[in-house]
Amino acid sequence: MHDQCCSDFQQTVDKYLIRHRSIIDVMTKYQEATSRVNRSVAKAVTECGCIQVNAQKQHIPPQANYSDLTQYMTSHISGDLCPSCKEVITKELGHSLFYLTALCSLTGLKLDEVIKKECKDVSTLGVFHLS
After folding, report:
1. CA separation (Å) from 37 to 92, 103, 130?
2. Each residue of 52-67: pLDDT tens digit?
3. CA dist 79 to 11, 45, 48, 58, Å?
4. What end-to-end distance do the CA atoms of the chain give, in Å?
5. How many other C-beta atoms are found inside a 10 Å radius of the C-beta of residue 99?
């Protein structure tokens, strides 16, 4: 089901990616879009206040097993996004996905295959995936 969704989305992006078709344009638009995601989350904290960030060192007991780590780790976020902030962040994430998908298309990659490979890599390598 999601394969078709990714494929449909990629076809739609290809259809409407007209003005910024250069790989350079797409790379910089993608970077701008991800910056806007970060800014919209920051605004939810600093301007709206619907969510709060209370960041501190993660405290993991020395005897904790790997399988127990999730119960000791926190996102540092409290509260819930209000409808307005949720809408803005969703919109910005959508723009970011648009340009990510455009990068896939311009480089000859299929978004669903990128997602499948990443899922497989994460499942196989687990905690070592991003180290």
Report:
1. 5, 18, 21
2. 999 999 888 888 887 7
3. 37, 10, 12, 19
4. 31
5. 22
